[in-house]
Design a protein that fits this description.
- The structure is a single chain.
- With about 150 residues, the protein is an alpha+beta fold.
- Helices cover about 20% and strands about 45% of the residues.
- The strands form 4 sheets. It has a 5-stranded antiparallel β-sheet. Strands 2-1-3 form a 3-stranded parallel β-sheet, covered by helices on one side.
- The longest helix has 13 residues.
- It is elongated, with a radius of gyration of 17 Å.
- It starts with a strand and ends with a helix.
- The relative contact order is 0.13.
Length: about 150
């Protein structure tokens, strides 16, 4: 019996999970083994909220941030705890939808409401949920290139 974490698109998740469970394996978000798709990006992540494991649709995530050792996804005014590290998330999220804007934040570009230039080669983003996010100097030029600013 293997414990396996699934990071799959929504169209494949149910079928793969069903087959693995039928084969005697356990689907576990804390498993050391990770099964993912090649050249595809997940539609959701498994997250924890109030002690429960939930499927978090990535299209609904406003931004993801690292606060110390905790990784939080912000969606619909609520916070969800993720088990993946920020660098791993950056590698698996669709780069057309998610952009790293600082050492501690990845934003969903579809949830950027406004972009305001700030001092010293920075931007201040206002997200659709009202949150304010800084684009730091390290990510300033890649941010400008992404939006052709």
């Amino acid at each position: 019996m293997l414990k396996i974490k699934l990071l799959l698109s929504e169209k494949r998740y149910a079928a793969v999970a069903e087959e693995l469970i039928a084969s005697g394996h356990v689907i576990d978000d804390n498993a050391e083994l990770l099964l993912t798709e090649r050249q595809d990006h997940p539609d959701f992540l498994m997250a924890k909220q109030d002690g429960a494991l939930v499927r978090l649709r990535l299209a609904e995530v406003t931004f993801i941030e690292s606060l110390g050792h905790e990784i939080l996804a912000h969606s619909g005014g609520e916070d969800y705890r993720l088990s993946e590290r920020l660098v791993r998330l950056q590698n698996i999220l669709n780069p057309k939808d998610f952009l790293r804007v600082s050492n501690s934040v990845i934003v969903n570009v579809h949830h950027i409401q406004s972009i305001k230039p700030a001092l010293s080669a920075k931007f201040l983003l206002t997200m659709t949920d009202g949150a304010k996010v800084d684009v730091t100097r390290s990510y300033y030029y890649s941010f400008k290139a992404f939006f052709s600013l």
